[in-house]
Amino acid sequence: MAFAELAVRIADVGRQCYARGWALGTSGNFSAVVSRDPLRLAITTSGVDKGLLSPGEIVEIDERGQVVAGSGKPSAEASLHVAIVRARGAGAGAVLHTHSIWSTILSDNAPESGLAIEGYEMLKGLDGVRTHDHREWLPILDNTQDWASAVPRVEAILQEQPQAHGFLIRRHGLYTWGRDLAEAKRQVEILEFLFEVMGRKRGMTWQR
Amino acid sequence: MAFAELAVRIADVGRQCYARGWALGTSGNFSAVVSRDPLRLAITTSGVDKGLLSPGEIVEIDERGQVVAGSGKPSAEASLHVAIVRARGAGAGAVLHTHSIWSTILSDNAPESGLAIEGYEMLKGLDGVRTHDHREWLPILDNTQDWASAVPRVEAILQEQPQAHGFLIRRHGLYTWGRDLAEAKRQVEILEFLFEVMGRKRGMTWQR
Amino acid sequence: MAFAELAVRIADVGRQCYARGWALGTSGNFSAVVSRDPLRLAITTSGVDKGLLSPGEIVEIDERGQVVAGSGKPSAEASLHVAIVRARGAGAGAVLHTHSIWSTILSDNAPESGLAIEGYEMLKGLDGVRTHDHREWLPILDNTQDWASAVPRVEAILQEQPQAHGFLIRRHGLYTWGRDLAEAKRQVEILEFLFEVMGRKRGMTWQR
Amino acid sequence: MAFAELAVRIADVGRQCYARGWALGTSGNFSAVVSRDPLRLAITTSGVDKGLLSPGEIVEIDERGQVVAGSGKPSAEASLHVAIVRARGAGAGAVLHTHSIWSTILSDNAPESGLAIEGYEMLKGLDGVRTHDHREWLPILDNTQDWASAVPRVEAILQEQPQAHGFLIRRHGLYTWGRDLAEAKRQVEILEFLFEVMGRKRGMTWQR
């Protein structure tokens, strides 16, 4: 799919994430692969209101994060998007990063280095999962403002956890991906649903 | 009502369920009876985005789940829809299956084989219930990925609980039905409302 | 305002309440005074989907609840609407009855015969309240299916509590009113907001 | 930007705040600077429904709160808006005041004179904040109905806390501001998001 068409679709997905409260303020960033060789990504520019996201706010970047089409500054986390599409290959034709209430809470309080989600039917919405009897392990990375330097850490985690459908950044949000934008959007919905289920359950005292 | 018209209405109901967060990802499936003799159902196809659900994503199936009109693979749970419309007769002209946050939580933590809902005015929205002084018992089935084999278990429960207006599948969601799509949609809203009331109450400590 | 115009406005308010989850299923009923002498009310008919509420689903009734214009069965709680518009006079040109999650929970667990709401700025949105330093007392009535017989009880409460801006029915919902539909809608929003604040606070453990 | 254009944009922002439940009833008031010398503000009039907010419900006032264009009574809290735009200069080209569930709850139960928010990525959406490793301190003022007299107190707090991006009024809501309406709206979203995260966390028992 050409850059112009991907930009239209990314803008659609972004506005939908905003409507659900997963990309408030200027949070969140979204990308899709334009070509693999050479690697080119369509990606949201920095600091834009996702509720008004328009195709003109999407730029095309190369593997070093340089803008090759469109105008604007790519997201500061562009290097993460590039790392993911390289590590996951065809499995990551689109990468979505959301900042939701529940991913923020769950990543904040998890004592471990990741979040296990197990036994829910909704897990079947994740790529390749065929049964609710599945244990999804989402690694949690500590937050940083220097993502360029953190790329090796992300690459290592993606390699160690080849089955992971996403990862969390502590007190920050979710990264997930899919073969295309539709699959990546589906995975955001699946994971955000499961975060809400788990977050609400952990807050319950089960009094009657 | 003809298949084409039912497909339009099923798509409407599906998009409404998605908007309320009851059919995120590709979760949920929805059907309506096209004819009783021979038995024909209009039913959602598998793996589609309910937020974009269109009549073209609804197929007509026979009692064995074979597609007789439209294209696409019917939901993997089509055998459950067929079992319900047979067991409940005219009371089940439409069957709706939703995956909500609260039905997932309540079915997960209920120690018993079902969920009792009692004493709420909202219960009067269920077919045939005339007073808030009613005790609704929703059976909870364990989840499976082999619904074809599980049909006898579902049929047994529907026979044992002739008054039940729905049932839950553990960590999975709700099945409910009505004489037509409007009634089934009303029952989804009634039951989801009551799940949320009960779920929130169970999480409360009643501090002041 | 003429019946036809009031019917349009009642339908608007009803659809808005539905959108916020305050009138799911077929719950909720809404009315406005067409004339005082003789007393005539425009009121929603029974069993209709508030998400699709249209002016054709509003009827005009007299003080005994008989339909004098339009077609359909008036709400089973029409006698409550008549009692309120009589007891409150010009202060009740419109009556709105909603079934929300939080009014259901708060009325269920309140041990007393009413709910006190005190010290919130939002209280100033109630008719005649000029400061947040106000204590609103909402009586709670036990639920019944025989509202015609319960009218004297409602009338007594309205007389005993001349300052009350509404009342709750246990495990059922809220009745409130205003000089016109806009004021009554405003009061629904104020009270539902305060119910949610109080309900959420009561469920909190204040851990950090 | 001219008054007429600002009125259109204020009305847009107001309707969006209403849709998210941050300006129910007639709560909330919103302003933007028309000119600095002489000081002129476009500001919402008192008692209007923010869900229907139209440019005709915005007036232009001078520094004493007198209406110089448009018709209607300016918000009773206009003196606060004037105090903020003076104290913050170019940093406050627009001022937004919202009444949300979570700001009401957090300001109610905070024992201290302010609310600290620390360590969340979302903080980077606040003007000038470059890292999640930031501690935002939002002063909490006690509520009053005499804002004209309270102006010196507000001015003192703004001077003592030059880094604060907003303040809370106890059991009442949030004031925040930005260089223009877009930035102020972004800050509302950032702060409301963080209030919800903190409020939900404080209510959680972390049972599994």
Account of the protein in words:
4 copies of one chain form a homotetramer. With 208 residues, chain A is an alpha+beta fold. Helices cover 35% and strands 23% of the residues of chain A. Chain A has helices spanning 3-19, 78-88, 101-109, 147-160, 181-202; strands at residues 29-36, 39-44, 58-61, 67-69, 94-98, 114-118, 135-141, 166-169, 173-178. Chain A has a 9-stranded mixed sheet with strand order 4-3-2-1-5-9-8-7-6, with helices on both faces. In chain A, β1 (29-36) and β2 (39-44) form a beta hairpin. The first copy, chain A, starts with a helix and ends in a 6-residue tail after the last helix. In chain A, 54% of the residues are buried.
List the helices and strands and how they pair.
The structure is a homotetramer of 208-residue chains.
Chain A: H1 3-19, E1 29-36, E2 39-44, E3 58-61, E4 67-69, H2 78-88, E5 94-98, H3 101-109, E6 114-118, E7 135-141, H4 147-160, E8 166-169, E9 173-178, H5 181-202
Parallel strand pairs in A: 7-8
Antiparallel strand pairs in A: 1-2, 1-5, 2-3, 3-4, 5-9, 6-7, 8-9
Helix pairs in contact in A: 2-4, 3-5
Give the SSE string of chain A. HEEEEHEHEEHEEH
Question: Uncertain segments of chain A of ≥5 residues (pLDDT<50)?
Answer: none
The multimeric state of the shown protein is homotetramer
Measured by DSSP, the beta-strand proportion of chain A falls in: 15-25%
Task: Report helical residue fraction of chain A.
Answer: 25-40%
Q: Which sheet architecture does the biggest sheet of chain A show?
A: 9 strands, mixed
CA gyration radius of chain A, whole angstroms: 16 Å
| Chain pair forming the biggest interface | A-B, 28 and 26 residues
Distance between the termini of chain A: 54 Å
Number of strands of chain A: 9
In terms of structural class, how would the helical and strand content of chain A be classed? Answer: alpha+beta
Could you say which overall geometry of chain A the principal axes of the C-alpha atoms support? Answer: globular
The average pLDDT score of chain A comes to 94
Helix tally of chain A equals 5
Strand order of the largest sheet of chain A: 4-3-2-1-5-9-8-7-6
